[in-house]
Design a protein that fits this description.
By secondary structure, the chain is α/β, with parallel strands linked by helices. It is built from 16 helices and 16 strands. The strands form 4 sheets. It has a 6-stranded mixed β-sheet with strand order 3-4-12-9-10-11, sandwiched between helices. The protein has a 4-stranded parallel β-sheet with strand order 7-6-5-8, with helices on both faces. It has a 4-stranded antiparallel β-sheet with strand order 14-15-13-16. The chain is elongated and about 85 Å long.
């Protein structure tokens, strides 16, 4: 089966992806697939997690980068390669270049997380920090390519890159031959397009569902228009899929082969990341957790068995701390409230006893006595509590009211 792409390249076919799989043997890991009992119970059918977060460099990006660079001519290799990325593509290009003995220069935004910058350097690339947004970084990399003759390695919009990412699809069919739905995150579309070509060529009955963050969802308007449409702005915590325009090559493949593109909110992303950590014991970046967010938001929409692709696990520790906190808030496991009590010795201890009996964990407490709104014998307490969920929040608030406290959220 052959699928057409626009532009000056030949059509992408299944044999291209099979060739990429042979090329990647001994280079990229055949990542594992783990069942999720919790997600399976929600969907009502088996749900499996394809763990590309455990791939070398922490994401699927190594696959496409290696295939692209390995396909360069000796003259092109001698000129070196250049890329622009905030993280995953940078590391994939850096390692692939080192393995192939090619000099690499990677442009990264000035604010790129330090662990990702350090990892890219450790994989052998020369890192240049330029620009504060990806568009500025990309322009600098392309200018460098024009000035030096280095080959620009696009993060998603090249047949070799798409073919490399498509090897994930071949592995899914090998590891879960009974699969009926594949759920995959979409940024520029390279991974979704590659998986779709591989899966639809061998199993046209399998449903492919792409997922985008609502604040960076360029594919829905592009599919409606029939051609790639650039967004005016993109806002999402999922840096790995924070792309404002579909690729010229990836768009027609997604248009033809991906059955549906869904969107999820930032709250749903946070909850999914928290679930991956707590239930699946997987450290996953927001872009990698987005298929799980789609399953959580509408579990009845997916025909099982389902394979959800965890595309990456490169997340900055400081970001994951904020995201997990946000995820716990979204899941109803944090409770913030204020209450008034009589300002007398032992009053605060009595209130804390009530919270202890209600099994709420106090994270932070502020005790105010000097507010002019308070009566002479009153004090106000602002509480931040960790709870077991929305129902427990109601139980804690009810216990405080039963003890005689005036509770305000």
């Amino acid at each position: 089966m052959t699928f057409r792409t626009s532009g000056p390249f030949p059509p992408l076919i299944l044999d291209d992806i099979r060739g990429a799989q042979k090329m990647l043997s001994g280079v990229a890991r055949t990542t594992g697939m783990e069942g999720s009992r919790y997600l399976s119970s929600l969907v009502g059918a088996p749900v499996h997690l394809k763990c590309e977060n455990l791939q070398r460099t922490g994401s699927f990006k190594l696959r496409g980068a290696y295939v692209r660079i390995a396909g360069l001519s000796p003259v092109e290799r001698a000129a070196g390669v250049v890329a622009a990325s905030a993280g995953n593509h940078a590391q994939g290009v850096a390692l692939a270049s080192s393995l192939l003995g090619v000099r690499s220069t990677v442009f990264m935004p000035v604010g790129a997380p330090l662990p990702k910058v350090a990892a890219t350097r450790d994989y052998g690339a020369e890192v240049r920090l330029h620009g504060h947004v990806v568009d500025e970084t990309l322009a600098a990399a392309q200018e460098y390519a024009e000035e030096t003759g280095a080959v620009f390695i696009h993060p998603f919009d090249h047949p070799d890159v798409i073919a490399g990412q498509g090897t994930v699809g071949l592995e899914i069919l090998e590891q879960c031959p009974e699969v009926r739905t594949v759920v995959v995150g979409i940024g520029g579309g390279g991974l979704a397009a590659g998986i779709a070509v591989a899966v639809k060529a061998l199993r046209p009955d399998v449903r492919i569902v792409g997922v985008q963050a609502a604040g960076a969802a360029a594919f829905p308007p592009s599919l409606s228009a029939g051609h790639p449409v650039a967004l005016g702005s993109v806002q999402t915590m999922a840096d790995g899929i924070k792309v404002g325009r579909p690729g010229d090559l990836t768009f027609p493949l997604v248009q033809e082969l991906v059955d549906e593109v869904r969107t999820v909110s930032e709250d749903e992303l946070s909850s999914a990341l928290l679930l991956c950590l707590e239930r699946a014991k997987m450290v996953v970046e927001p872009a990698g957790a987005i298929p799980v967010a789609a399953l959580l938001s509408d579990p009845d929409a997916f025909r099982g068995p389902v394979v959800a692709v965890l595309s990456g696990g490169n997340v900055d520790p400081l970001l994951i701390q904020r995201i997990l906190t946000h995820g716990m808030v979204a899941a109803g496991r944090y409770l913030s409230l204020r209450l008034r009590l009589t300002d007398r010795p032992g009053a605060l201890a009595a209130m804390l006893t009530t919270l202890s009996v209600a099994d709420a964990n106090v994270l932070d407490i502020q005790h105010v006595r000097t507010d002019p709104r308070l009566g002479l014998t009153e004090a106000e307490v602002e509480l931040h509590l960790e709870t077991k969920g929305p129902e427990h929040c109601e139980e804690v608030a009810a216990a405080l009211r039963a003890a005689g406290y005036l509770v305000r959220s």
